[in-house]
Each structure stands twice: as C-alpha cells, then as structure tokens.
Amino acid sequence: MEEEDTSEENRMSFLDHLTELRKRLLWCVVAIFVLFIPAYAYSSVVFDFLMRPIIENLPEGSSLIFTMPAEGFMTYLKVSFFAALFGSVPFILYQVWKFVAPGLYKHEKLIVIPFISFGTIFFLFGGAFCYYIAAPKAFQFLLNEYSSEYVKAFPSIKEALSFFMGLLLGFGLIFEFPLVVFVLARLGLVTSGWLRRQWKYAILISAVAAAALTPTTDAVSMMFMFVPIVVFYGLGILVAWLFGKERRQKAAEDIEDTDEPEGPGPKDGF
C-alpha cells in the first residue's frame, strides 16, 4: 500500500503557520519563565561560575566592577535568564520539532528523539568548548595584551557578562550545525555535493556569521568563532554524505538489484 501520510502543511494556510509559530514561541517563553524562578535563587552561584574564566585571566591589580546602583541587580537578573535559557534548550528543540513536524512523513518523524537528544548534547558541547578553551584564551589575550604598569583592566560586570554570554550562545549554535545538516540531508533538502559546491559562499557567510555572533569587533574573538564555523561546515559535508537521502536511496537500489532473481541460463553439466 502506497504511503498516504501526506503532510498537513498542504492544508495549512499562512495564518495557520503564524498561529502555530506563536503557540510554539509562547511555550518556549513559559518554559524559560518557569526555570527563571529557581535560577534566580542560585543566581550568585551561576554568576561566580560564569565569571571564573574572566577572573582567572584578570591582570594583577584588576577586578570586576559595577558603576551604576542597579547594575548588580540587573546583572543577576540577566544571569538567571541566561541559565533558564540554557536549561530550556531540550524543550525549545522539542517545540521547533513540533512546528516542522506537520510537514513531515511518518518515517521522517522518527528522527525526533535523535534531533532533541543530540541537539541538546551538541549545544552543551559548544558551551563547554567556549567555557574551557575558547573564552579563557580570548580573555587572556584581551585583558593582558594591552595592560601595563599604567593601564589596568577593570571590566564592568554588565559588559563582561554580556560579552561572555554572547560567546557561549554563539558557540552553542555553531555546534548545532552538523545536526541541522543531518536533518536536512535525511529529508533530502541538501546533499554533500551541493554543500561542496557552495564552499566559497560558505567561507564568506562564516565570516559574516562570526562577526555577527561575536559580541565585540576584535579580530581574536572573531577568529575563535570563525574557525569552528568553517570546521563544522566541513563536518556537515561529511554528515550529509554519510546520512543523506541520496546515499540511502542508492544503497536500497543496490540491495534490490542484488536480490533480483537470476534469469534462466544454460544448465550445468554435460
């Protein structure tokens, strides 16, 4: 029996899509708000954890400061929101999946669990890479290279936190690229050959994305963002080649050819 689970997308109007999008965004906001409350209770612990890569790379005699009366309070609110956002990643990915699922066939919907699981893992890996490797190197250069006996770095907690959160979110999104390519390749929307042919444009777009995702305009931070984007684009080509729809269809055709019965031939013997 031919598969008849045609997509609901064909029966949904543009306004229906907007309504569904608003619904999914609302659920994401609710999830962030629910996690925001316990996150604020531990905001001081989260703040100390987030500021550690900066504090450990401050020049001797430097420290973090705040210059406005409400800056400390607003910074802790921002920390709580950031922690809630990170904690909501699995639920947000699930809402993204629920938004696109009506346009998929039943066999395409089977990748929902890998999408949510690996999406969360890759996002956390991106944040960990930034926290333990990229950010300390960037702070060591930015805070120490231009400090001297007469020039000391006294970063504002507001600016330092915004800078670091931008890096963490940027790296988290970059590490999602192979997963996005995996989903698109499984759906047959991209192929490894198409990605290889677009590599020149990919380099240009990677540079623009690195500039957009980097909170500052210094070349060092941009390079820390640019290099992983290019590396993951190459990894995305490999993922598309390994798991692409065209490869699976070719494998299925090869199996069918192998299983075909042989036609009548000359009998053995004399």
Q: If you had to describe this structure to a student in words, what would you say it looks like?
A:
- The chain has helices at 14-41, 43-55, 71-87, 89-100, 112-144, 157-174, 177-186, 192-197, 199-213, 219-243, 245-259.
- The longest helix has 33 residues, at 112-144.
- Helix 3 runs parallel beside helix 6.
- The protein contains 11 helices and no strands.
- By secondary structure, the chain is mainly α.
- The relative contact order is 0.10.
- The chain folds into 2 domains: 8-175, no CATH class; 176-255, no CATH class.
- The two termini are 47 Å apart.
State the main characteristics.
270 residues; mainly alpha; 2 domains; disordered N terminus; disordered C terminus
Strands, helices and their partners?
Blueprint: H1 14-41, H2 43-55, H3 71-87, H4 89-100, H5 112-144, H6 157-174, H7 177-186, H8 192-197, H9 199-213, H10 219-243, H11 245-259
Summarize the structure.
The model is unreliable at 1-10 and 265-270 (pLDDT under 50). The chain is mostly helical and 270 residues long. The protein has eleven helices and no strands.
Described by strand count, sense and barrel closure, the largest sheet is: none
**How large, in whole angstroms, is the Cα Rg?**
25 Å
Distance between the termini: 47 Å
Mean pLDDT: 80
Number of strands: 0
Residue runs with pLDDT of under 50 for 5 or more positions? 1-10, 265-270
Envelope shape: globular
